[in-house]
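Translate structure to sequence.
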């Protein structure tokens, strides 16, 4: 079942991890995908892999913290794909320090990439999404956008929490304008960002904190995103989808 046949999508942070899995899943369901990232080699590789599998994808370099690059990236997406109907705001970064040790630069950089980028993407994609007739925005927040986590990474928590409520704000604005806006909240997902804890007591602790008893897979997050991007979720806007193995059910 190809629920996104012929639709046009832009995915930020698409060069690896959850973003790459989302790009591949949307393409497998028929979407034409703009894979965007600052990691050019990996991003081009993801787009090439999608094309090798029979899908439609292009790579566009996009620094999501840069307003002008958003304007140019969306214009390039519309030009190369022929439109834009789906926006996936996935890019994000974080630092592990506590609030006492986190520098102002670290905090502001995290907010710029993880939170301000979502504002910029929605702002400059809005008219194209409205014109598509099936506009859908999926903002990737986190379980850490709805909980205090471990008391570290203050910029990440603040940014992801802001993404959660910015999603609802935009959903109400556009509820009758042809754009649905929802957030996805992954738990502990087995992606390259977890490489530094693989096989350690920290990995064991994260698994122990997850009621299902394992780490999630990027493809499981991508499946939820594909649902929200499709007409199967036509009555969903302003909602939060937690893909966390039960972490926040405790």
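Result:
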């Amino acid at each position: 079942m190809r629920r996104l046949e012929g639709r046009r999508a832009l995915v930020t942070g698409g060069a690896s991890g959850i973003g790459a899995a989302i790009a591949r899943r949307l393409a497998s369901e028929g979407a034409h995908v703009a894979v965007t990232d600052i990691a050019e080699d990996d991003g081009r590789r993801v787009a090439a892999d999608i094309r090798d599998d029979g899908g439609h994808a292009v790579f566009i370099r996009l620094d999501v913290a840069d307003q002008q690059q958003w304007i140019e990236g969306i214009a390039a997406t519309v030009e190369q794909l022929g439109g834009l109907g789906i926006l996936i705001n996935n890019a994000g970064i974080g630092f592990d320090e506590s609030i006492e040790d986190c520098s102002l630069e670290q905090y502001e950089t995290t907010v710029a990439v993880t939170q301000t980028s979502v504002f910029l993407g929605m702002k400059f994609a809005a008219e194209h999404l409205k014109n598509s007739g099936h506009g859908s925005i999926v903002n990737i927040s986190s379980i850490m956008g709805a909980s205090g986590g471990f008391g570290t990474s203050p910029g990440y928590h603040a940014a992801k929490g802001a993404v959660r409520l910015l999603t609802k704000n935009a959903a109400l604005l556009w509820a009758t304008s042809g754009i649905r806006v929802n957030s996805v909240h992954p738990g502990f997902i087995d992606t390259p960002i977890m490489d530094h804890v693989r096989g350690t007591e920290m990995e064991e602790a994260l698994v122990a904190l997850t009621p299902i008893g394992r780490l999630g897979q990027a493809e499981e997050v991508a499946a939820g995103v594909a649902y929200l991007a499709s007409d199967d979720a036509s009555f969903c806007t302003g909602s939060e989808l937690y893909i966390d193995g039960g972490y926040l059910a405790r």
